[in-house]
Amino acid sequence: MTGIIGAIIIGILAGFFANKIMGSTGGLLWDLLLGVVGGGLGGWLLPLLGISWGGILGQLGTAIVGAVLVLWIASLIKK
Question: What pTM was estimated for this model as a whole?
Answer without folding.
Answer: 0.85
